[in-house]
Design goal:
Radius of gyration of chain A: 19 Å
Strand content of chain A: 5-15%
Order of helices and strands of chain A: HEHEHHEHEHEHEHHEHEHHEHHEH
Largest interface: A-B, 34 and 34 residues
Number of helices of chain A: 15
Strand order of the largest sheet of chain A: 1-2-10-7-8-9
CATH architecture of the largest domain in chain A: 3-Layer(aba) Sandwich
Number of domains of chain A: 2
Shape of chain A: globular
Number of strands of chain A: 10
Largest sheet of chain A: 6 strands, mixed
Structural class of chain A: alpha/beta
Oligomer: homodimer
Chain lengths: 321, 321
């Protein structure tokens, strides 16, 4: 299991390696919600998402022998770069299994941190099998993206820093994908503020956690086509256990609500946030009537958005003049 | 004239009304430049740009009689909203003259702060004449966007806050349009660090300040078609005087260099910056070989970008799924 003390220890263990990201506020947002909203901006974290917190907390606790053998993970997203960064910072051999259809920019970024990238077929079974086989063959330790108490405790340090900085919160909103960030946020928040209301937010199109909690069974999340690509994964035994134990409330938001929240963050708050990272704000805006006069926290999980299509508009504009 | 003491007084005068904006850094940027680069992020300022600093410093110093009569300005850009905000905060009747072709979103935002918007023809003479006539008729005080020592001193408070926070700088980079931000930055920086190198950056396509300084005459800047729409204005007597007096170095950057710098800020630093605001970073990247091991400051002037075209890409994407 994992407790508040684990989050606190994770904070001290990783703090020299990660960014202490800013908490941002907006007068306009506070006027809309009629509350004080504090957004912990992990889009400003190294590699552009909260993921290095968990990866570093995990890898720093390996034995010297495990470190000398190396680590392996499978991911097509932010976790891949986080593990690669951690491996580089700690001087550990790192192998990342990525599907053939992973965007080249993510493959390049992962290699840029010095990791070895091994390609696999475009399905979860192939990813898992390839990583496990490499682990068995070479003695690499598998670093899972979320089904690991050390990853969860590390992820919880974002909420820990938020509450340390702003004090008592009445509510905290966070995205739910595989449940790693959710579980860590729950443990940190409840450890610091026992009566805080914890609200996980999930895309309606990938509402497996909502249904899992309702029916008390882990549902798979087979390729849901939500724009919030970081939230397409299903819960694990460990994350589901924590989410259940603390009576988490889960709400869902539509694709339009996600993009509207994202646009607010870019346009009014001037920060680049990825769709998954905007999901908690979509939840805050959805529940705004319940939040009047409250202290409300939100975890903005990341800001990695492919901007080439966007910037084509600018490059086209200057080529015409 | 305007001195460092005026900037210091402006800082204390306006600080309760403006945001103390963050100074942001980037490991990647520091590695590219091989220097420590500190960006003062006025895109996080109220109304999304540095402009309220000058407007508030000006308007707070009006006599009670002047305040009771009201203020007028002409602008199609960030200055319009800044004056409207200042008028609202201080309870002063505010009239903003905007050309017929001003974007509706800017007209609406200005009205949203409670200002009266008067439309005029799409040329500078019409703007100036309309504002002056309204001033004469109603006794409104004209709040110029930059040709005013109180506006200049207010604009200088951004650099003042930057240097207060990070200490000794070897260089400071800033954009040059009408020269208000440039002049204020120069006075603040030289007042705090006499041997600092001050470098104004201008689009090659609107290089009137560069040529003005070279030839010692103020050149007009008739509708240059740079993407940096905040920098299309020409210097005034007051701003030209300050820029000359302190031996400012002016460098120019291409349209491509501006968009590349902007893309870096969005993609790597996760902040939304408008083209004019990215111009100083384009200058830093252009001179990087001269900046090795130095302490380098930059003023990111604003972040107001029309995002509807961008977000159409996202809204289209979710409507397909």
């Amino acid at each position: 299991m994992v407790n508040f003390e684990d989050v606190e220890q994770a904070y001290h263990r990783i703090k020299q390696y990660v960014n202490h990201t800013p908490v941002m506020t907006s007068r306009t947002l506070n006027e809309i919600v009629e509350a004080n909203v504090y957004l912990k901006c992990e889009n400003f974290q190294r590699v552009g998402a909260f993921k290095p917190r968990g990866a570093l907390n995990k890898i720093l606790q390996l034995s010297n022998e495990e470190k000398s053998r190396g680590i392996v993970t499978h991911s097509s997203g932010n976790h891949a770069q986080a593990v690669a960064l951690a491996g580089k910072l700690l001087g550990i051999k790192t192998v990342v299994v990525m599907p053939e259809n992973a965007p080249q920019v993510k493959v390049d970024a992962t290699k840029g941190y010095g990791a070895e990238v091994v390609r696999c077929d475009n399905n979860t079974e192939s990813r898992v099998r390839t990583a496990e086989q490499l682990g068995e063959k070479h003695g690499y330790t598998l670093v899972h993206a979320y089904d690991d108490y050390n990853i969860i405790a590390g992820a919880g340090t974002a909420a820990y820093e938020l509450i340390k900085e702003v004090g008592k919160l009445d509510y905290i909103f966070f995205p739910i994908g595989g449940g790693g960030l959710a579980s860590g946020t729950i443990i940190a928040s409840k450890g610091m503020i026992p009566d805080i209301e914890i609200i996980g937010v999930e895309p309606e199109k990938a509402d497996d956690a909502f249904r899992s909690l309702r029916d008390n069974v882990i549902y798979p999340s087979p390729y849901p086509n939500t724009i919030a690509d970081g939230l397409r994964t299903q819960l694990s035994e460990k994350t589901f256990g924590i989410i259940k134990k603390y009576n988490t409330k889960i709400i869902t938001v539509t694709e339009n609500e996600i993009v509207d929240a994202m646009k607010f963050l870019w346009e009014r708050m001037k920060i680049v946030v990825e769709p998954s990272g905007a999901v908690p704000l979509a939840g805050i805006l959805k529940l705004e009537e319940n939040l009047r006069k409250k202290q409300v926290g939100g975890i903005i999980s990341g800001g990695n958005v492919e901007l080439n299509d966007f910037f084509k508009i600018f490059y086209d504009k200057i080529s015409l003049t």
